[in-house]
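hiii so my PI (J.) wants the whole complex modelled not just the main chain, which honestly fair. so below is everything: two entries, each one labled with what it is. i double checked the lines twice but i was tired so who knows lol
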Amino acid sequence: MSKRVAIIGIGTTGFRATTPDVSYRELTYEAAMKAYLDAGVEPKDIGSFVATSEDFLEGYSISDEYSPDQLGAVLRPIYTVPGDFIHSLASAYMMILSGVGPISVAQGLSKASNMLTLSEMVTFGMDPIYNRPLKESPHAVAGLEMARFLYETGTTREQCAKVVVKNRKNALNNPYAGHGVLVNPDYVLNSEVISYPLTQMDISPHSDGAVVVVLAEEEAAKALCDKPIWIRGIGWCSDTPGLETRNWAEAIYAQMAAEMAYKMAGIRYPRKEIDFAEINDEFSYKELQHLEAMRVCKKGEAGPLTEIGGTEITGEFPVNTSGGCLGVGNLYELNGGHKVFEVVQQLRGEAGKNQLKNVTTGLAQSWRGIPTTTGTVVILSN
Amino acid sequence: MEITKKMVEKTATKLTAEEILEGKVLSVKWEPKLKYAWDNGPAIGRYLAELKNGKIIAKKCDKCHRIMIPPRMFCELCWVPSGEWVYVKDTGIVNTWIIGHVDWKAKRLDIKGGVRPITLSIIEIDGASKGMGILHHLGEVDPWKIHRGMKVKAVWKPPEERTGSITDIKYFKPVK
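here's the output for the full assembly
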């Protein structure tokens, strides 16, 4: 049996639409200082560091070269993953299992406010021969997917609007969230159309911020930490990238990532064995589609569950108590980071006004965003 | 297996530059519009503001006592917030340099036709800790007479032309 690994420290700057007072260096430095203090470690105690960045979003070629300083990782084992934060978390987890050292660190960052041509950057991720010549907005891809998802599952736009109302309300009680607001479903449904059926309010607004997480192998975790949060399962998966051939109704990539994590965690009935989840909701319908991929609901049942309040903080299976991407903000490569941060807070009993009662197991799921079919899942227990 | 000329002629499709330019084969032209507005933060922000004033400013680490340029809000080696701001001189010594015959787009310079080679240097700044300096051009010097340890001084743009950039210094020139 593998060694057990726990999260023993978390740190964040919180998430805001803009952060003009600091550079990306100071953002990560703040999150790292908090995480190391939380874990009771210093950089010299850490065996390996895994950073997360995507060159075109940072505006640096080989942006990984700029990651060591602010983590205290100069002249130390470090590399960068150009994926989601949970990919980096998986890497940091494997570092411990590989014997690189009993303590490792995963970092993620968003400076989305610094990207002046965000839409072009995402379009640049589309196939240059088949797709780019058509000069479509990246949100067209989300619109296409939403339309097919609604059609195949019988989910309604009203149910998607309920996701927006819930998540943006949850964000009001999360001091780290940047986009909390009280709105009613009609406001969402009547907001500006972007790619029908997708409206402006169905899209998560972007945020800046950083998250750093410290992991430790069982012995070190128990010595350093009163409330270790154990990594029980972790998974990741990518579908074929073609827009022409993908499954537009179901998030198979997320389902396969979840099955990988469930197998490792020994989970057979997710709805019963998991208490709550942080689910990628970069677009309102994605929360519902991803919930079905996690097998929390059967196909077509996430919408009705949301409609009756089943995913509210007071509901039977709370989803995105943090406010999600819709309420916290779209953090791009860091999206998985804020999900993990929230699950750890809930399992420690440190989630403030949004704290759930008697929770022992939570799930954090992320997605690489438009136009990808890449997903990540981690299951944590206290 | 060795690839022979005969094999290439039999199997490969020949393509000329003209055929690409005339659109006889599929080609895609895409100019990505990638624009960023990086937040400087207090350290880089003040460094650039001081350059506009014609001054070079560093920041001190209270633990290892390094005087660091470019300034930073934390010492990356000691892992502590950095301390006081310190002005350093606009003079220094040449650590290493090149005599460049190609420009930054890899275009060959017409050196024989009288174009001056590019003389880019790492300059260790007086007042900063050893090994800390500025990457900049050298000027008013015969490229072949540059030497390690050569003393140099910043040649600044006139105040009205400065923008708060490393190019507010035009270049460094030798001094006695």
